[in-house]
Amino acid sequence: MPSLTVPTPTGPFTITEELGRVTRSEWGSGGTDQTPLLQRAAAQVTAYFDGQLTSFDLPLNPGGSRLQQQTCNAMLTIRFGETRTYGDLAKSLGVPAQAIGQACGGNPIPLIIPCHRVLAATNLGGFSGRHGIETKVWLLKHEGAASLLI
Question: Gene3D superfamilies per the record (predicted)?
Fold first, then answer.
């Protein structure tokens, strides 16, 4: 599958596509493929980190179970600079908060599908991206959600 790595302030970030949809993103080096979709995705990731983009507009296919897909769709509704709790998403989907936590941790397209905007009820929760919670904190500060961290 074609993939392209983009340099970011939080480390190299690799985006993968399959059949014209982004299927994966992750921190770390990967590919150098220059497909039109990957170039568009890379430009949007760069614009996000440059403070010029607050919402990604890319065709996505996170795959996974029905709950995984529902959770990813719910995360996509959380706007830049806003957060929700695992409990908020659980209530809206009618499932336990623990299931939402697992689905967030299994998000195959972090950043673009903003799992970093989902918090635990009393703390930041986890983050499976590079450097874990430190990257989550960086992203929340970047989005102006730093007041949540005090």
Answer: Methylated DNA-protein cysteine methyltransferase domain, Winged helix-like DNA-binding domain superfamily/Winged helix DNA-binding domain
Number of domains the chain contains: 2
* Local mean pLDDT, 10-residue blocks, the chain (150 residues): 96 96 94 96 98 97 96 97 94 95 94 94 77 88 74
Measured between alpha carbons, how far is 69 from 23 in angstroms, rounded to an integer? 12
Residue among 60, 115, 119, 137 flagged as catalytic: 115
The alpha carbon torsion through 40, 42, 44, 45 (nearest 10 deg) reads: 160
Domain-located, residue 56: no
As to burial, measured by CB atoms within 10 angstroms (0-12 exposed, 13-18 middle, 19+ buried), residue 69 is: middle
Domain, as residue range, for 38 = 3-49
3-state helix, strand, coil in the chain (%, to 5): 40, 15, 45
User: Do 87 and 135 reside in the same domain of the chain?
Assistant: yes
Residue 72 a catalytic site member = no
pLDDT for 148 equals 58
